[in-house]
Design a protein that fits this description.
Helix content: 25-40%
Radius of gyration: 22 Å
Distance between the termini: 10 Å
Bound molecules: ligand GBH
Shape: globular
Order of helices and strands: EHHHEHHEHHEHHEEHHHHEEEHEHEEEH
Number of strands: 13
Strand content: 5-15%
Structural class: alpha/beta
């Protein structure tokens, strides 16, 4: 079928015997190019990622204030099976055990997020010493284990107190975010050098305030939604300014912004299909699932014209200086990559989406077809447009894991997925795209938002009754990948990696 021929020319073919992964050396990677044919740069940030509400639990402990997720998850019908993040992985108490797992995995970096209402129960004003102390102990433990923290300032658990004051609809929300960032910079910038301001604005604004399927569960008008989006990006920019002004070691501090990358990949490697995919990946429709609306203002200082056209009279009025302020220099762009849609040039010359054929492989989550090419085309298109080093701040696969009769958790689907996606990432690096890191989503099975505990994304299985952790097969596999600097990936490739249904 047509999909099987995606980028055939650039396939890493089985016939070659061993997969050719040439040196990933590229001038643009300040992170340091690889030597001796290694597929990834020497100081590549091999990592794992989590987020506060998804793993911490301790939802009402030690003075933590409620977040919109604490409230939303209690609403009838909001979450699969009525699950909540009240306990989640109990990482709040078990973080040392979890860091020991990371150490054993051999990761260089850990991407975590801070729960805003844990450190500022009302969102602004008085801080919570016990909440701050938790992150302080977490950072010390990471340091002790030689793991570099990447701190995401906001990964969706917005303070309920601020939501009551209008949340992102309130213009002051940008100042609230700046105040929160000031606290984190002052307390933690001695130990945190890599920051991400926000995770996936498409989700906390779009899913939370337009579709109403994530917290706080609102279905605002399109115009209100755009206002919230605008204030969210203003908040991001203010946080960047705060970090530049206050971080302890300004020169060593790296600040980024993380989007839910919506990837379009070309159906074939024909130039017209590549250009169709490039057009599609930056096109903006009347919904949140796009890239340019969330990135152009922040990186290029303007809203994309097609998005402004579809917004029409719903386009919010804002101060002309906002756009200048929203564009603050960044050190890297974080892209969370899970899947791609396929595009070709249609007969009318416009990009045409080509659906995957019936029965095409998917993860345990219905929204995730397995499309390895997104790890090549995504970084490439993003780098071409925004010219910033990239970090893959999330990538992973949901499966319905279980403990097998031998007591182990076998997850060959996850291994095959990561193997294919990482080889495609290596190919992007080889072709000159500067990629500084790769963070597997996730270290642990955790609270998967509206899907509750149904979807397991972890390299480590979590029994949510006993809180017992058991590394899955993918954990041991990823450990070898990290230890070999990615060289182990070149073994045992029977099919071209982007050919997911080769029969
Ligand atoms: C990321 O979201 C999140 O950062 C992370 O917290 C999460 O656990 C992880 O991925 C796995 O999902 O689009 O309406 O069908 C990725 C973006 C947004 C993709 C929600 C799935 C499902 C709802 N995700 N989406 S919908």
């Amino acid at each position: 079928m047509a999909n099987h021929s995606v980028s055939r020319r650039v396939f890493l073919g089985a016939s070659a015997g061993s997969v050719a992964l040439a040196s990933a050396a590229h001038a643009a990677t300040k992170a340091g190019a690889s030597k001796g044919g290694a597929p990834f740069p020497k100081d590549f940030a091999w990592g794992v990622a989590t987020a506060s509400y998804q793993v911490e639990g301790a939802a009402a402990e030690d003075g933590k204030g409620p977040s919109v997720w604490d409230v939303f998850s209690k609403k009838k019908g909001a979450i699969f099976d009525g699950n909540t993040g009240d306990v989640a992985c109990d990482h709040y108490h078990l973080f040392k055990e979890d860091i020991a797992l990371m150490k054993s995995l051999g990761v260089k970096s850990y991407r975590f997020s801070v729960s805003w209402p844990r450190v500022l129960p009302d969102g602004v004003g008085a801080s919570n010493p016990k909440g701050l102390d938790f992150y302080s102990r977490l950072l010390d433990e990471l340091h002790k284990n030689g793991i570099e923290p990447l701190c995401t300032i906001f990964h969706w658990d917005y303070p309920q107190a601020l939501y009551k004051k209008g949340g992102w609809l309130n213009r002051d929300s940008a100042e609230w975010f700046a105040e929160y960032t000031t606290l984190l910079a002052d307390k933690f910038s001695d130990r945190v050098k890599i920051w991400a301001t926000q995770n996936e604005p498409q989700c906390f604004i779009g899913l939370g305030l337009l579709d109403g399927v994530h917290a706080p569960g609102d279905k605002l008008t399109y115009s209100q939604y755009l206002t919230a989006a605008h204030n969210g990006m203003r908040a991001h920019a203010k946080a960047v300014q705060v970090l530049r002004a206050r971080a302890k070691d300004g020169k060593a501090t790296k600040v980024g912004y993380v989007v839910a990358a919506q990837i379009a990949q070309p159906l074939t490697d024909k130039p017209e299909d590549v250009e169709a995919a490039r057009t599609a990946i930056f096109a903006v429709g009347r919904h949140q699932w796009n890239n340019a609306w969330w990135m152009d203002p922040v990186l290029l200082g303007k809203y994309p014209e097609d998005g402004v056209a579809v917004a029409g009279k719903d386009m919010p009025k804002f101060k002309p200086t906002d756009l200048d302020e929203m564009k603050q220099p960044l050190d890297y762009l974080g892209i969370n990559i899970y899947k791609a849609d396929n595009y070709k040039r249609g007969v009318d010359g416009k990009p045409q989406q080509v659906p995957v054929p019936p029965g095409y492989p998917r993860s345990g989550a219905d929204w995730q077809p397995i499309t390895p090419g997104c790890m090549y085309w995504g970084p490439r298109f993003f780098y071409d447009r925004y010219k910033l080093p990239l970090s893959i701040t999330e990538n992973g696969l949901a499966t319905r894991d279980q403990v097998f009769l031998d007591g182990k958790i076998h997850d060959p689907q996850r291994i095959d997925f990561m193997h294919r996606y990482l080889l495609e990432l290596a190919r992007a690096i080889k072709d000159g795209v500067p990629v500084t890191g790769y963070y597997a989503w996730s270290l642990l099975d955790n609270f998967e938002w509206a899907d509750g505990y149904k979807q397991r994304f972890g390299l480590v299985y979590v029994d949510f009754q006993s809180q017992k952790r058991v590394p899955k097969d993918s954990f041991d596999w990823f450990k070898k990948v990290i230890a070999s600097g990615g060289r182990s990936l070149t073994e045992k490739v029977a099919f071209p990696v982007t050919q997911v249904t080769p029969l």
